[in-house]
Amino acid sequence: MKSPLRIGVAGLGTVGSAVIRIVGERAAALEASVGRPIIVTAVTARDRSRDRGVDLSGVRWHENALSLAADPEVDLFVELIGGADGAARLAVEAALAAGKPVVTANKALIAARGQDLALKAEAAGVALAFEAAVAGGIPIIRTLREALPASRVTRISGILNGTCNYILSRMEEEGLSFADCLADAKRLGYAEADPTFDIGGFDTAHKLAILASLAFGTRVDADSIYIEGIANIESLDLATADELGYRIKLLGVATRTDAGIEQRVHPTMVPKRSALAEVMGVTNAVAIDGSAVGELTLVGPGAGGDATASAVIADIMDVARGAVRAPFGISAADLEEPVRAPIRTHTGGYYIRLSVVDRPGTAAAIATRMAEQDISLESILQRRPKGRKALETAEDSAVPLVLITHATTEAAVRRALDAVMADGHLGCAPQVIRIEKE
Amino acid sequence: MKSPLRIGVAGLGTVGSAVIRIVGERAAALEASVGRPIIVTAVTARDRSRDRGVDLSGVRWHENALSLAADPEVDLFVELIGGADGAARLAVEAALAAGKPVVTANKALIAARGQDLALKAEAAGVALAFEAAVAGGIPIIRTLREALPASRVTRISGILNGTCNYILSRMEEEGLSFADCLADAKRLGYAEADPTFDIGGFDTAHKLAILASLAFGTRVDADSIYIEGIANIESLDLATADELGYRIKLLGVATRTDAGIEQRVHPTMVPKRSALAEVMGVTNAVAIDGSAVGELTLVGPGAGGDATASAVIADIMDVARGAVRAPFGISAADLEEPVRAPIRTHTGGYYIRLSVVDRPGTAAAIATRMAEQDISLESILQRRPKGRKALETAEDSAVPLVLITHATTEAAVRRALDAVMADGHLGCAPQVIRIEKE
C-alpha cells in the first residue's frame, strides 16, 4: 500500500467542516479509488472552542495558516479561509514555496492572483486546484480544463451567484419586491449580513474571470469586467419580461468578439425556454459554447458546505493520484494578455423601460431618438402589465413605456437615452436590461 | 519536445471523419496543451473510395481493424466501428493485448463486455476510455469517474437518446402522431432506416448500463434492464401530461433501492419545471443525485459528428498526457455483482389511461379495484382533453379515463389492472406511464 496523503485544512467554516466529515465518512471508498489513505492530519481556524460537529481528536491544531502550511506532516494544503490577500494568500504561497500542492475554494484569491500563483505552482511542479472556487459542486473547472480540448470556446455564461438567483426567482414567482426578498434571503441564511458582494455582482465577476481565463486561455482579468448588480430590478420588470417570454437572471457572460474578449455581469433577459432561464432558486448553472461540442450546460448546487466540499475532495483525489495539471490548462506563462472589448461595443438586444410623462407624441419622439441611432425596435409596450395594481413611478401621471430593440450596440443605446433624457420626457432614470437570445 | 502520439482510427463515419478533421485543425492547441504532437497516422474503413471531406494523404490505410491495431506505428487505437462483437471487439482486444491504449465510442461493446475489457486494459496497464459511448459531447463519464468522489451516488437518470427526445418533443409541441414524427426524424437524418434500436429503448439501455456501473461501482449489467420504448405514446398522453403539469420523456433511470439496483428505461412523466423536462429536441441530459453534491445535471448534444468527436478527443488527450485511470473508476475486479431490483418492486407514481366503456358506475368500479391493491389516487380525469377533436379509441362509445396514483408499487398496479381488465370495463389495453417526481 502506498503512503497516506496527509492533508492540512485551513479554515473550518461550513466547507472545511464538511470536508473533514466527508473524508472521514468515505475513507474506505476514497482509499479504494486511489490506492492510498486520505487523512486530515492538521487544521487551523480562528476559534478553537467552537463545536463544528466533526471529530477533531487526533488532528493537530495550528495557531495560524502559515504554521499549518509549514507542517512537515502535511503533504497537501487545503485553503478555505477566503480573501484575496492576508493569511490565505501568504499561506498558499508558503505551501507552494515548500513544494506542497494546494487545493483552494478561494475565488477572490484566484481572481486576483491566479496567474501568479499558477506560475509558482508550475515552478514547484505541484498542483494548484480550485474547482470549489466557482459554482460550488458543479465540476466546471475540470470540464473546461480537461473535457473540451476539441473545442475553441467562444462563449461562457452562467448563473454563478445563488443569492441573486434566489432573490430574482422569488420576485418573479411571488411578485415580491427586491427589498422583501433580500430580507427573506438574509433570514434563511442565503444572503450575508452585508450582501453587497453578492447582489452587487462582484462575486459573480470573480467567478466569471476565472472561467474566462480557462475558456479562452487568457490571463485572469477581473478588473476589466463590466458589473451591474440586481438591486434596481423591480417586480414590474419581471412581470413585463414574463409577458414577453423572458426571465431575468444575473448572468456572468464572457464572449470572444471582434473587438476582443467581452466580460460582463448584469441582470439579463433570457428566453424562458433556454437552459439558464429554467434555473431557479439557489442553484447555479454554466453554459459553454464550443466549436466542436456545441452548447453544453452544467446545472447544480452553487454553494453549501457539502456541495463545495464535493469539489474540494475531487481536487484532493487528483492530488492523491499524482495528477499535476497546469492550473489553467496551459502553462500560466502562455496565458495570453486579453484584448478587452469595452461594454460600449457590446452588441445585442435591449429591454428599455422608461417612465414617461403621459403626453401625446411622447412615444413618437422617443422612437425618433432611437431611429437617429439606427436602433430598430422589435416591440413597444405601453399598456399596464398584468397584475400590476398601481404605478410605482414617482409621478402619478407617468406611465411605463417598454421598448425591445433588435440587436444594436451599447453605445447607440446610451446615446439615444441621453437624447431622450435631454428632451425631458422621463419621470425618472431609464431601466436598461440586456437581452441574450441564446 | 516529447515524441508524438500516433493514432490509428478504425471507422470513418461521421465521428471518425470529425476526429481526423478536428485533430488536424486544432493541432497547435492540442500540442500546446500536452507538450507533444497528436497525429493520425493510420486508418481503416469499409469503403476506401468515399470522399469524407478530410485530407487522408500521408495517412496509412489498413485493410481491416485488426491490422490497424497491430501497426507498430500506432500508439493509440481509436475504435469507431460499433457493434458488440465482430471486428470492433476483436480489434480492441488485439490492441489491449499489444499493450496499446484504446479510445472507443462503442456503447454496445462496453455495455456487453465492459468489465472484461477493463480487466484486460488494467492488466496491460493502459487506458480504455469511452466518454463518447454515452451522451455524445456531454462529459458524463469523466464526471462520474473523477468529479464526484465525495458522493455516494444514489440515482442517475437521463435523456440518452436524441431520436426519441426529438420525436416526443415534436409530438408535444405540434400535436403530431408518433408515426408522423418518426417519418420526419428519418427524413432529417435523426432516425435510422430501422429505428427499432432507438425507439425501442435499447440504445438508452446500453448507455444506462454503463452509467450505472460507474455510478454504483457495480458490474455493467445491461441484461437486467427493464425496457419499454416510445412507440405506444399517443398525442393524447402528451396533451394530458401537459394539463397535469408534466412532460413525457424517454428516461433511463438507475437507482439504489432497498431491493437492490433498479435499472429501467421507459417513457416517463417528469414535472415541467424539472431540469430534464426542459430538454427538447435531439439534446441529451443526465442528472446525478449524490450524497455530497446533491443534484447535478449535464445537458448537451447527445450525437453528431463534432460533438461525439469532442468526447473522443478529450479521451485521446488523457492518453497523450499519460493518464491511466481504471476504466470504471475502481479496479474492474472490484466492481460488485449488482443485486437486481425487479421492476415489480419499483415504487412511484403512475399515470394510467384507460379507455373505458361509457356506462354508469364504471369509474367507481375501477377505483374500487385500485383501492383493493392499496393504491391511492391523486386525481381522476374523465373529461376530453383540450384540443382533442375526436376520440382515438377503438369504440366510439369509449371515453378516456386517466388516473394519477400516489406512490405505489409496480406489482400493485399490475394486479389492479389485471382485475380491471377481467371486469370487462376496457375498450383496449391500458396505457401506463411511470411518474418521476424529482
From TrEMBL, chains A, B:
Q: Tell me which NCBIfam families the record gives.
A: PRK06349.1 (NF004976)
EC numbers listed for it are: 1.1.1.3
Q: What's the domain of life for this entry?
A: Bacteria
Residues covered by the ACT domain: 351-430
- Gene Ontology molecular functions: homoserine dehydrogenase activity
User: What is the source species?
Assistant: Terrihabitans rhizophilus
The transmembrane residues are: none
Q: What is this protein called?
A: Homoserine dehydrogenase
SUPFAM superfamilies linked = ACT-like, Glyceraldehyde-3-phosphate dehydrogenase-like, C-terminal domain, NAD(P)-binding Rossmann-fold domains
Q: In which pathway does it act?
A: Amino-acid biosynthesis; L-methionine biosynthesis via de novo pathway; L-homoserine from L-aspartate: step 3/3; Amino-acid biosynthesis; L-threonine biosynthesis; L-threonine from L-aspartate: step 3/5
Q: Which UniProt keywords apply?
A: Amino-acid biosynthesis, Methionine biosynthesis, NADP, Oxidoreductase, Threonine biosynthesis
Family under the similarity heading? Belongs to the homoserine dehydrogenase family.
Q: Which Pfam families match?
A: ACT, Homoserine_dh, NAD_binding_3
Q: What is the lineage of its organism?
A: Bacteria, Pseudomonadati, Pseudomonadota, Alphaproteobacteria, Hyphomicrobiales
User: What is the enzyme's main class?
Assistant: oxidoreductase
Q: Which PANTHER family is this protein grouped with?
A: HOMOSERINE DEHYDROGENASE
Q: Which InterPro entries match?
A: ACT-like_dom_sf (IPR045865), ACT_dom (IPR002912), Asp/hSer_DH_NAD-bd (IPR005106), HDH (IPR016204), HDH_cat (IPR001342), HDH_CS (IPR019811), NAD(P)-bd_dom_sf (IPR036291)
